[in-house]
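Let us walk through a complete example step by step. Step one is to write down the protein sequence. Step two is to encode the small molecule, flavin-adenine dinucleotide, as a SMILES string so that its atoms and bonds are unambiguous. Step three, shown after the inputs, is the structure prediction itself.
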Amino acid sequence: MASVIVVGGGAAGLVAAWRAASQGHAVTLLEANGRLGVKLRISGGGKCNITHDGPPKALLAAFSKDQARFLRPSLHAFGNGAVLDLLRREGVETYTRENGRVFPQDRPGSAAAVVAAFETLVRRVGVDVHTGARVTALEGRMAGQEGGAPRLAALRLGETRMEADHVILATGGASYPETGTRGEVLGWLRELGVPVKPWFPALAPIPLARPRPAWEGVALRNGELRLSAGPAGRRLAAFAGDVLFTRTGISGPAALELSQAVERARRDGAAWLTHASLLEAPEAVDAALQAEARANPRLRAATWLQRRLPERLVEDLLPEAGVGRDLMLKDLSKVGRRTLVGLVTALPLGAPQPVPLARGEVAAGGVDLVAVDPRTMALRGWENLRVCGELLDLDGPVGGYNLQAAFSTGYAAGTI
Ligand SMILES: Cc1cc2nc3c(=O)[nH]c(=O)nc-3n(C[C@H](O)[C@H](O)[C@H](O)COP(=O)(O)OP(=O)(O)OC[C@H]3O[C@@H](n4cnc5c(N)ncnc54)[C@H](O)[C@@H]3O)c2cc1C
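Step three: the predicted structure of the complex.
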């Protein structure tokens, strides 16, 4: 029997602690918050998108190549089926939406039911749970006399020094710091010589240099959000999905998914956003508009546009573009036609402002995957240190992938 300290009582830490204690180890779980699973409780808007349906190969395809390669062994050992079986045995029934996202059965506080299930699991196997216990430092020393000897880690909780045969760090990312994840552990690891990648915003709303507060709450559906290097620059990335206007910019699935690329382009000096409601080429839309003008010459330009864009946008955009509200298609000039086509094929949203790390559903960056054994989550060159969950340089898209990555890597870390 080994002694194990798990730091962080979120998705990864709960699974790591449960797994290690299930194997007969003496496990202590230290969680900074007054209760366990605070971020889990707000996940999926309080509904908790636990995982994604499908075979391991399909789940891995949602991650970058390097991340998928790293995740493969742990996902095979503890995949979506294993997570759902475990929860089902604790009374959490789930269902799968058409888009493959798996949720607990709909009822108020369903995310809290997931946390309650994990809490029951860790307590049943005898994990010694300490809440309100924020680890304040990480110390390392050489385990042997020789130069290449592995290092040993110890923790500090204020004045108290804690050692164990195994220390598992499951302290999460750096977004939503109010949920306990301040990201400081990554800095400690860097100081101890562990290769890390700095935290970077991901899956976050995008503030715009010219926000449209009057459009707050309006959604652009079934289109594509596009990122280019400047207004006339080359296309860098695009994401199909809904965009939602907020007071300060844009949110919604397409904005979240594109946010990391947007911030990278912004830091590189040139980022520009447009939205295409119609995914056809501008020439095809122009031809369709001309055909419409011939078939229906008295149709108002505003009406044509309202069939393709939300009314609230049309009310503002037409006067801004110098097209009269009552102008009929038969009276539309070539320039006016180009304007209408432009609004539905490349609505300019403009330059982004810095994407906030704190508002991301996940934080990109973390412990460099090359420094970690993907089967055990052990840090290379360390005798007793493992890392798992969002603290690793892992970030998947929206859809249950990030929690699954936390569960899988937590399970691997707890397998001792
Ligand atoms: C609003 C929101 C919604 C989300 N929705 C979903 C979703 O529906 N599906 C999905 O797959 N993913 C979702 N995510 C992402 C998902 O919640 C995270 O990827 C996941 O929680 C990461 O698990 P983790 O255990 O690594 O970290 P966390 O769950 O963040 O747990 C880390 C824990 O470590 C503790 N801790 C940190 N530092 C210390 C310290 N020094 N000492 C002691 N304890 C410490 C923290 O208090 C925290 O409880 C969402 C995220 C957010 C912010």
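Step four is interpretation. The chain has two domains: 3-202+358-414, 205-355.
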